[in-house]
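Task 17 of the worksheet. Students: predict the tertiary structure of the chain below and write it out as structure tokens. Keep your answer in the requested format; marks are given for formatting as well as content.
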Amino acid sequence: MLLTATSSREAGLARLPGTTVLRGDWKGRTVVAKTSRRIAEEEQALNATQHVDGIVKLIEKVVCGNTKWLIMEPVGDELPFSPASVVLTHMDELASCVERLYGAGWLHCDISYFNCRVFPPTGKAGFMDLGAAKTLKQAEKGTGEWATGTPQFMSLSTLLDGTHNLSSELESLISFSSLATSIAAASRCQPSGGHCSWNAG
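Model answer:
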């Protein structure tokens, strides 16, 4: 694979064993190349959701030896934790993205801080890492395997029976939103003589 790698890992990615993510130059443009044990499932999800705004875009797939790589557009910056108004705007954008995915017949199934980014050039928040994504039918049935997702952001229903639905997606988003807004509020509260002094902004 003729990729000039500039980084062996994208922030928030490649946490699972068997996953490799490279950032580099591909045919004159900056891209992210990813391979994992669930690369076929991620390819299917990306192909099915390319028309959905706020989802990382697949450029092409490449087979190198026995390894399949997905070449994708690079994601943007991590979501900020302040100011609070910006945090809440991004939460609204992510909720809209969940709705659009649902309308397309899909659930992300791994909503967490690590899989959300501010996408260039729009500056709006969206999702990456669709390796755990499922169609609505697949999500309702469950797989009989361990529940997919990032534990600290998973809904109670998903932890109990391994299934996903729209409400569990929103519950994951609310968990993430609660964390983000708490940090945003804390960043505005500056100790002053033993008291909290709130900054405007």
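Marker's comment: The CA atoms of residues 78 and 117 lie 5 Å apart. The chain has two domains: 4-72, 77-188.
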